[in-house]
Every structure is written in structure tokens, then in C-alpha cells.
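Title: Request for sanity check on NmrA-like domain-containing protein prediction

Description:
We are preparing a figure and want to confirm that the structure record we downloaded matches what your pipeline produces today. Could someone re-run it with the sequence below and paste the raw C-alpha cells into this thread? We only need the C-alpha cell string, no images.
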Amino acid sequence: MGLLRRRRNRTSLKLRRSFGSYSDGKERGLALCGLVPGCWGGLNAEAVGGCEFFKGKIVFLSFGEVSNAEAIRLNLWLRKEELHTVQYPRNKWKVQNKARGMAMKNEKSKILVFGGTGYIGNYMVKASIFLGHPTYVYARPITPQASPSKIDLHKNLQSMGVTIFQGELNEHEKIVSVLREVDIVISTLAYPQVLDQLKIIDAIKVAGNIKRFLPSDFGCEEDRVTPLPPFEDILDKKRKIRRVIEAAGIPYTFVSANCFGAYFVNYLLRPHEKKDDVVVYGGGKAKAVLNYEEDIALYTIKVANDPRTCNRIVLYRPPKNIVSQLELISLWEKKTGRSFNRVYVPEEELVRLSETTPAPNNIPVSILHSIFAKGELMSFELGEDDIEASSLYPDFEYTTIDQLLDIFLVNPPKPAVAAFE
């Protein structure tokens, strides 16, 4: 245990800032012991087969050569909550709250995520599990041509206790039957599938039991912005989905999550490329809102279950996540000790590119113009009737921009690419 104690602080930091699976058994075991005060000496570092983390807590543990009796002895103490392990399913151990035990699962709403294997959808699924909800995913079928990464993703979700229904969006009867097993539906479908949500809406109307539907918004507040035509076309389709939901009388919550924080930090700062130039869109002073994807997902699961947000729009505008490009770059310079050459792309050039660049590549240009040149995310004041997530849940400790950049220093999230076709 001497080695474990010596490495405890460094490994604990890495663990708390990580989100995903560890592949090295030794490091994983050391990190686990580093987080557990008084971790018993019988835990072999190589015995821990897999860990999945969300907001610094363990979502599930997978053990190798550890007996049931030994695993039950593992007492985890995280965030002042006493936890114990429960076998689920074979050789998988799901962390449960000791006070509420397995009964907690039956008290929680059942959540179905469409697009749960996608970028933001994967965060939603893990947030749902993290908050103790029975979680389901409706995903395209695995075919013989499926990539190994997709197969692994399905296995990973199933290992966390997620029930995956495989099917297409045009399989109406199958979707209806799935909906009748759940309470809440969250759609995280990408832009090319936005209008396919009409099929989900039709199925919800037939099923007749859904307590809340959250369509795939999660960006700017589309009813209060007027971007350039390529981006406007996207928002028109999302607005259509909103109006159809309202007309159908389906209980809903519309979410305006603003920017995916890790996605845009990667896009704006390019930390993986180690370049000295940083592109600034417009003058760089327009304020945007960058929220860490983990927090977006957790807020979303919370509002999906909150009676105060039924048939309302919820905006995610935490004060410490409001930042301009120039402020973001300066903060990154302080943290890295580097200096960056700012290369400005004038607003007029962004407008020109949106008009001359072939579709769909003109869409991201229009989005950059709306957010970072025009500053539309912060172009309107919130009124008394607006619901803002960080005000609604003041006890929730969201990840600030400063903390998000710390994550990029220790364990930077991988860059992602948005789908527009």
C-alpha cells in the first residue's frame, strides 16, 4: 500500500477529471485505491477490469478475478456518500446509494434516448445512469458491416445497464411498443435527422403514456435569433418540430443549451494541434455561452423530470460560462504559459463565405457568424418568465470555463465533428 499512498494525490486528480473508460488495469487500480480512503489491501490493481466515470463519480465497475465476497467488501466513499457495489449484470458492479439501495431504481422515471450512441446522446445516457434512472436507447441495428467502434459502444452501454432497442425510425409499431415501456423521451438526433422526429411524435401520440418529450434542440434559442440563411434553414426545421409538438398537446420541455463547451474549446483553441495561431471570428469580443457537455446532459435529465419545466423553454446560461473568444484565448494563455497569434476573420468575410461556400459546408460558417461575430446567444435579456438552469438548480456545481480548461490541461476531450449531411 506504500506505492498506492505515494501516488494517491496525482492519480486521484486524474480520475476526478476523467470521463470514459480506462484501458490500463494497473493505472485503473491505483487510481481507484487513490480515491478510496482506507481501501483494503486485498484489491489487486490488475483485478479492476473497467471503470466508467461521470462528474468524478464512478458509474460502474467491472471486476476481473475478484470474488463476490471481495467485491462486496469494497466500500467507496465519494462526495460524502456511502456507496456499495451491487452485482449487475454478470461480473458487472453498479454503484448504488446505500441508503436507498435497489429501491431507488423503481422510484425513478424510465428514460429513452433517441440518438444515444451519438456525441451529445452518449452524454445524456451516462447522465441518466448517473442520476439513477432506468435508461434505454433506441439505435440503428448492428449490421455485419458495423464498425468495431460502434459494436464496442453498444457493449459499453449495455455493460452499464442500458437497454438498447435496435430499429429504424420508420418502424412505427416497434417505436410505439418501446415508448410504452418508458416515461420520458429525449431526442438527440443530429441535424440530418431533425425532421425524422416527426415519426417519433407520431408514435408518442399513439403510445399515449409519455410524460415528457425533449426534442433535439440543445443549441441556441431558435425562436429568438435570426442567423444567416444556411443556419436559419436548420433552425426552421427545429421550429417546425416545436410547433408540431405544441399542436399535438404532448408534454414537452424545450432546451436551449447554447454551445457544447468541449466541442467549441477544441474548435476554437485547437489544443491538440499545438499551433501558435488561433483564429478569431469577427472582433472576438462578442459573448458566447460554453457549457461542458456533462453539465448539459445532467441539467437535461433534471429538467426532464421537473414539473416546473413542463411545457416550458429552459435556457442554460450559467454566469461563469459566459465568455468571449478573446477572453477564452487569454485564459488559455495563462494556463499553458504560451502566447498565441490571433488571426482575425472579419464578420464581412464570414457573411461572404456563407454565401459562396457550397452546402453543407456553409452551415458551420453561418453558425460561427451567429455565435461569435454577431453574438446572438447573448443578444437578448432573460425576463421574469424565462427559466435558466443554473438559477433553477443553484446547488448544482456546474463546470466553469476555468475548470473546463483545467480538464483540457490534464485529460483533453477528443475533438468531435458535427454532422450536417
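Thanks, this matches our download. The two ends are 53 Å apart (CA to CA).
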